[in-house]
Amino acid sequence: MPQPRVTIVGAGRMGQGLALALLAGGHGVTLASRRVHPVSAPLALHSGSLATAAVGADSVILAVPDEAISRVAGELAAGGTVAAGHVVLHLSGLLDRSALLALAPTGAALGSFHPLQTIADPATAAERLAGAFVGIEGDERALARGELLAAALNMTPVRVGSAAKAAYHAGAAMAANYTVALAGVAERLAREAGIPAAAAARIFLPLVRGAVANLDLGPAAALTGPVRRGDARTVQAHLEALGPNDRMLYRGLGLEALRLAREAGLDEAAAARVEAVLREEG
């Protein structure tokens, strides 16, 4: 059976990481970038144009920023090397196959492949991607190829409808980016409470790790703390200690925590008392 070949356009951390992981999974990989810069061994940048990089590939993956996807697709279309036998995928969590519209006349299958994982070091990508989920979208042939690529990366593919990508991506941002933002808020509140900066930067990390580990049980079962206990007095004290912006954030998250607490079986009378405190203005 011939070795599957993938061309990856874009040699940032995710592009290099996917290239290394696919190499480890038995794929032939060509890595192309408009900008020449060092890449992780044993990778080497394709020395020709982006269009010539697609020659001989089964799949072309655009690992470029969202705003560059349509432009790169147009460049590939103009190069004349992408044909009906190709599958072209981009990595955007927000955009759908229409970002590749310039390639539609070629007959290539078009779609998106969005790994739900962060890659800080390309060398660890294979390990980081294994076990993670990947959102796939596009026409049927693109979806089938996305599932094959996911299998090669030991990832779990989930099909996402084009119209649902914005909501799906908002969920990803909440889970990853805003978790980091909340950790920043917690650190700031610790400093404001008089905890030395060096300790404040790390004081909640074991707590966060424990909460994340509990999520294997599901959000409702994982929830702990005053809202889960129905402790309206503690919730009130928290609100009184916070400034206006932090109070608004706490109220919104508290109401979502209350939904989970109710799902987990919190007594309705206690839940109603917590809700009244969370919704009280002032």
| CATH architecture call of the largest domain | 3-Layer(aba) Sandwich
Q: Report the CATH topology name of the largest domain.
A: Rossmann fold
Distance between the termini: 69 Å
Mean pLDDT: 96
Portion of residues in beta strands equals: 5-15%
Quaternary structure: single chain
Number of strands: 7
Order of helices and strands: EHEHEHEEHEHEHHHHHHHHH
The helical percent reads 40-55%
| Large-scale geometry | elongated
Key features?
single chain, 282 residues, alpha/beta, seven-stranded mixed sheet, elongated
Quick summary of this structure?
By secondary structure, the chain is α/β, with parallel strands linked by helices. It is built from 14 helices and seven strands. 49% of the residues lie in helices and 12% in strands.
Task: Summarize the SSE layout with pairings.
Blueprint: E1 5-9, H1 13-24, E2 28-32, H2 50-53, E3 59-62, H3 66-79, E4 87-90, E5 109-115, H4 125-129, E6 133-138, H5 140-152, E7 156-159, H6 165-175, H7 177-192, H8 197-200, H9 205-214, H10 219-222, H11 226-229, H12 232-241, H13 244-263, H14 268-279
Parallel strand pairs: 1-2, 1-3, 3-4, 4-5, 6-7
Antiparallel strand pairs: 5-6
Helix pairs in contact: 12-14, 13-14
Q: What can you tell me about this protein's structure?
A:
- The structure is a single chain.
- The protein has two domains: 5-163, 3-Layer(aba) Sandwich (Rossmann fold); 175-279.
- It is built from 14 helices and seven strands.
- The protein has helices at 13-24, 50-53, 66-79, 125-129, 140-152, 165-175, 177-192, 197-200, 205-214, 219-222, 226-229, 232-241, 244-263, 268-279; strands at residues 5-9, 28-32, 59-62, 87-90, 109-115, 133-138, 156-159.
- The protein has a seven-stranded mixed β-sheet, with helices on both faces.
- Helix 1 (13-24) links the parallel strand 1 and strand 2.
- The mean pLDDT is 96.
